[in-house]
Amino acid sequence: xxxxxxxxxxxxxxxxxxxxxxxxxxxxxxxxxxxxxxxxxxxxxxxxxxxxxxxxxxxxxxxxxxxxxxxxxxxxxxxxxxxxxxxxxxxxxxxxxxxxxxxxxxxxxxxxxxxxxxxxxxxxxxxxxxxxxxxxxxxxxxxxxxxxxxxxxxxxxxxxxxxxxxxxxxxxxxxxxxxxxxxxxxxxxxxxxxxxxxxxxxxxxxxxxxxxxxxxxxxxxxxxxxxxxxxxxxxxxxxxxxxxxxxxxxxxxxxxxxxxxxxxxxxxxxxxxxxxxxxxxxxxxxxxxxxxxxxxxxxxxxxxxxxxxxxxxxxxxxxxxxxxxxxxxxxxxxxxxxxxxxxxxxxxxxxxxxxxxxxxxxxxxxxxxxxxxxxxxxxxxxxxxxxxxxxxxxxxxxxxxxxxxxxxxxxxxxxxxxxxxxxxxxxxxxxxxxxxxxxxxxxxxxxxxxxxxxx
Length: 455
Ligand code: ADP
Ligand code: ADP
Ligand code: MG
Description:
8-stranded antiparallel beta sheet; binds magnesium ion
């Protein structure tokens, strides 16, 4: 049944993005929000708003019971979880399903299988998709870990199976470090994710992060090509592009086919991303994880394919079959996204919430700004620091880099420190301009190129 009324169970720029897509489809919207977000842009834009709890996310955006009750109370027939928060929580998806409400995303069993990194690795192997050499599933015992690590070869990564957002990952250089870090990793994973499962993976040196966007309707799956997200700080993406200029057309075809095979093998429904590491020196790629939700960087794919991914998933959740055939999906041009955070890049990226005194947004052909901002808004201190994303598209990568530089120069956000100066410096950097980057590029680069304080 088509969705008539959608409850948005998230905040920030993605809530704004989902409300817009719903409105474009004639779906009425209810914005669920914490008491700290009563004045947010998404609340102002939605047809209705409902408070789900106090500022602390554990009591609002992570409170599945309050969210389902809010949907029932407002008569919403569907819930969109956005990204982060409960978006990859199989228990929440199951509770939504059990209440007779449509969860905009995969079935809860799919989330349970693919949202857990260790079981997702097994599903990838079963579908014939290459994974990073690593342990057979969860490791609990220190002796078994040492044996497996010796077979894999050091350095190895210890990864929390339930981890996300760049957290829950440690690197062990040798057997002594492994023993100490294994226990630490288990304790930290239990505290952070409520699950102490960890597994081992070989550390791939200086890889690129290349990921494939898929869309499924539970019967068929198509891919919308890849994004490259190699510029990362603390394993979190900072700057993303589509397509990747590092891979050949043959690699692109194989990578996208691998992603579709894995998604098809589970009858995937909704938007999903299969993340891979790509080794320039060998041309090999390895599956690392699947995000069973819309991603922060989805707009670069929208810019080069012309597909509205959020609208597609709302249609699929409303019971429509995929409207796209693989042969209809084409790549055109090159897109770049800069994540604009309320952080001070001249002071170790210290979070910098505060009052937005002036906002001036660039516009023009090939420029898009997805954000939660308006002039006079007070950025609350309780949540992730992402303010918005500047996205540009041009005919080719050189032109896109030129355009992003111009758009960054025209973007004014006064009142809080932001990561705009970092992006300006990256857009001028010779290695970035030549696409000579990898996932371990940005951190040493920041040491060598400190961002000066903005005047
Ligand atoms: P992407 O969509 O690029 O994969 P992330 O994996 O970093 O991005 O997750 C998207 C957002 O969701 C992050 O910016 C963060 O706010 C939030 N998030 C993801 N995982 C977690 C987590 N385990 N704890 C807290 N926040 C998270
Ligand atoms: P998260 O759920 O936090 O996004 P991922 O498994 O996607 O965790 O890994 C996040 C980042 O960590 C990757 O984009 C990459 O930069 C790095 N990484 C993960 N696994 C490996 C590995 N085996 N070798 C080298 N780098 C890795
Ligand atoms: Mg990831």
